Amino acid sequence: MEVNAAGNNVIEIKTQIDPAAIDAYSKQQTRVYEQTKNKEKQDIQIKNELEPENNQVQDITEKSGIQFELKGVEFIGNTIISSEFLNKYFESLIGKVVGFNEILDAISNITQNYRQMGYITSKAYIPPQKITDGIIKINILEGKIGQIEINDTKWTKTSYIKNNLVKSTGIEESKIFNVNNLKTTINNINTAEYLKGKVTLKSGNIPETTDIILNVEDRFPFDFGTSFSNQGKEYTGIKRFGINLGDQNITGFGDNLNNNLNFSKGLFGVSTSYSIPLGSKGAKLQFDYSHSYVKIGNELKSQKISGKSNEFNSKISIPIYRKKNLILNSDIDFDMLSSKTESPINSAYNNKYELRALRTGLDLQNEDNTGRWGSSLTVSTGLPFLGAKTLKEDYSDATSKFVKFEGNITRIQLLPLNSYGIFRISGQYSHSHLLSSEQMQAGGMYSVRGFREGVLAGDVGYNITLEARKPVPYLPKYISIPYRKDKVIKIPLKNRIYFSVFYDQALTRELKQNVSYNYKNFMQSVGAGLNISLAKYLNANIYIGVPLGKQRDDGQNSARVHFGISSDLI
Question: From the centroid of its chain, how far is CA 184?
């Protein structure tokens, strides 16, 4: 892209030279990566040692040849399912002469309904009684949780596991036992990479209760990883390096500290994040800080453009609904951002602004038998106080006072032959002309492959991705690499390397500019790639994207290679 000394195209490249916009784009890349990566199904281990009478459908009343006219049913003890709903199992029998065989069949169906809902220790039965006026009494035994035993761990407080990871999913002593809640508990534990949980169920000392014995293993929760990619921006260096250093459980109560360092030829960025659980319901408080320094190169090197940005963010996440495979979270963010770009050669590049924004959002995650859904909606409001200001109002009239809507929907769908597909659509709308750090950016590995990173930017826009991935066939289950004289490292290969094909599309548009909409606001591409996940030690994505349609500018190639490699060393 050519830029003359008068800066006629300054507006077009502002997201390429604004340090805050570069930092925002990096965070956008991380979000998309997390939304679209294939998560391995958790190995949930629940050992059932319940007595047979607590684990199977039991008819405690012997079948009898006695018959009577059934006029009604009285349910006793049910709190999970209403009597009105349970009556549906007897609708076809009311007013008829029935035997106990028919009654027991209906009772068995009620028990099966409880089991299908996850209440595996609940059941219906007929208590000893004298049937009067054709009314039969049915007892509903809703099995409760007895004692919860958790072993001591080295790095994690037992109280944190019990109150935050177990209690938050509805697993509490004296509560009605649902195995789906227990599976959610184990999934939450195993999601934390430094924890691994197994469960044993036993009959409790108190009748009709189930004791839960939770065996948790933990490791030192220290993380260290590196990354290398060509996802940097043109004016600050395409090749980008990253280092991550973190502790997932500093005090043993689930607080998390992460530090990241990103750098390229003309970029130095550092960020830190600290989060801590609030209460036992899954709420979390998080604080973030990031700093970026850029020195612009390539054809703009002679302009001696440099810039820096600082961002402080505080965030509260609150779970609204968390049952079985459905999770709905809400969050409230407050951002304080300072950005400054300057050139001693050409004042057209000088820009400085202070941004204060309140963001509220909803995030929905749902897993089913064939895949998972993910969606989010965020409303951002630029606040006109607390120091918010733009010191160059003629910079295309971009403003720090705005309302912006962002949303995305992602579907990971299982396909035949051990394959899966990815569908993702995201979009943004604002009635204001936004500062570059708030604009939607498109182009590159996590939006439209085949184009330069963040080559498009706008106040409104959308991005669509369709991708199919299939395991590379005929690979061995694993390969062995000698580690010591008597040890080898086994690296899994089967179903760890995927071949992918994709179609990407995006459109963005800026407001309040005397530039008409044309083909340069739209781009699309097709291509193929490889997705490699060899345990935590090597993860890589490599794509070749081919742009479709008219050439946007002289810098557009007929094809472009994108890659990203990361390794969690600890």
Answer: 15
Asked, for residue 88, whether it belongs to a domain, the answer is yes
Of 93, 110, 141, at which residue does a domain stop? 141
The answer on 560 and 415 residing in a single domain is yes
Do 502 and 391 fall within a single domain?
yes
Give strand pairing partners of 259. 245, 272
Query: Distance (Å, rounded) from C-alpha 384 to C-alpha 393?
Result: 14
* Token pair of 245 as six digits: 């250093």
Which helix (H) or strand (E) segment holds residue 420: the answer is: strand 419-430
For residue 258, tell me if it sits in a domain.
yes
Q: Which helix (H) or strand (E) holds 323?
A: strand 306-323
134 in a domain, yes or no? yes
What is the CATH classification number for the domain harbouring 537? 2.40.160.50
Domain boundary among 141, 172, 206: 141
The tokens describing 107, both together, are: 């009772």
Asked whether the beta carbons of 538 and 563 are under 8 A apart, the reply is: no
> How many residues appear in the chain?
570
Count how many domains the chain has.
Answer: 2
Claim to verify: residue 36 and residue 73 sit in the same structural domain: no
372, 471: one domain:
yes
Q: How far apart are CA 44 and CA 352, in angstroms?
A: 52
Q: What is the CATH number of the domain that holds 117?
A: 3.10.20.310
- How many CA atoms within 13 Å lie on the side-chain side of 108? 12
Q: 201 lies in a domain?
A: no
Going edge to edge, which strands form the sheet with 195-203? 46-49, 195-203, 209-218, 144-150
488/112 Cα distance (integer angstroms): 49
Instruction: Give the pLDDT of the chain (570 residues) as one tens digit per residue.
Output: 334 433 335 555 777 888 888 888 888 888 887 767 666 555 566 777 676 554 333 444 444 567 889 999 999 999 999 999 999 999 999 999 998 889 999 999 999 999 999 999 999 999 988 888 899 999 999 999 999 999 888 899 998 998 888 888 889 999 999 998 898 888 888 887 788 889 999 999 898 899 999 999 988 889 999 999 999 998 999 999 999 999 999 999 999 999 999 999 999 999 999 999 998 888 999 999 999 999 999 889 999 999 999 999 999 999 998 877 788 999 999 999 999 999 999 888 888 999 999 999 999 999 888 999 999 999 999 998 888 877 654 445 788 899 999 999 999 999 998 899 999 999 999 999 899 999 999 999 999 999 999 988 999 999 999 999 999 998 888 887 777 777 887 788 888 899 999 999 999 998 765 555 666 789 999 999 999 988 777 899 999 999 998 877 777 789 999 999 999 887
Q: Quick one: 37 and 71 in the same domain?
A: no
Q: Phi, psi at residue 344, to the nearest 5°? A: -75, -10
Q: Say yes or no: 230 and 378 in one domain.
A: yes
By residue range, what is the domain housing residue 269? 14-41+221-568
Instruction: Assess contact for 262 and 241: CB atoms under 8 A.
Output: yes
